[in-house]
Amino acid sequence: MGEPDHDTCGGLVHAVAARLTGGPQARGVRLDFTELVMIGSSGLSALLMALRHTRAADGRLRR
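Request: output the structure for the sequence above.
Response:
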């Protein structure tokens, strides 16, 4: 991933939201930051949106 930006962050939020629709067993979302080099305001915003979606689904977001 490198550096999430305005063009790629929507994909992250969409992927988390899609994962949460998989039923009760899909309420856990794990994000892998091993290749993350830097995160800016767009990336932070996407992470917050992913967290909001996860909490709304009574799920858990982990790294």
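The beta strands are 28-30, 60-62.
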